[in-house]
Amino acid sequence: MAKKTTVLLTWDDQGTSLVMARIEADPKQLKILKTAHSLYINASDVSAEQEAALSYINSALADPASECYYEEAELKAAHGIWHSHLIDMKKPFAIEGPALAIYCGFAP
Q1: What is d(CA 20, CA 17) in angstroms, rounded to the nearest whole number?
Q2: How many whole angstroms separate alpha carbon 99 and alpha carbon 5?
Q3: How many CB atoms lie within 10 A of CB 92?
Q4: What is the count of structural domains for the chain?
Q5: Distance CA 79, CA 1 (A)
Q6: Full strand arrangement of the beta sheet holding 5-13
Q7: Could you tell me the residue range of the domain that residue 98 belongs to?
Q8: 98 or 33: which leads in pLDDT
């Protein structure tokens, strides 16, 4: 079994809200998260690989009951997989174990 890394993901939703999730990322997901770090999905200066990483995260954080607008199989498969890991921002929270912080999202 592949080692998982605890990641604290902060997703900026167009400057109107922040969404945080505690994720146990496998090596493939960790590469995706690191590729997207400090980038915005709607910025014009991202590479195709970076845009794909941001789209994966956007899809993974979506409510699984919502419609998936992506056509790519990998993005459809990721739809909603991290939604249950969203953190309730109304109270303090703890993170155990080694953690990596990732910040990305939509630009305002």
Answers
A1: 10
A2: 7
A3: 6
A4: 1
A5: 23
A6: 17-25, 5-13, 99-106
A7: 5-106
A8: 33
Tokens of 108: 């305002």
Task: Write out the two tokens for 8.
Answer: 């604290």
Q: Kindly state the average pLDDT of the residues 6-22.
A: 89
Q: Is the pLDDT of residue 75 over 80?
A: yes
SS3 label, residue 22? strand
How far apart CA 52 and CA 50 sit, in angstroms, is 5
Residue partners of 81: CB distance under 8 A and separation at least 6: 60, 64
Distance CA(32)–CA(58), nearest Å, equals 12
Residue 78, C-beta contacts closer than 8 angstroms, at least 6 positions apart: 56, 59, 60
pLDDT at 96 over 90: no
d(CA 8, CA 25): 10
Q: How confident is the model at residue 2 (pLDDT cuts 50, 70, 90)?
A: confident
> Which of 97, 89, 91, 72 shows the shortest CA–CA distance to 13?
89
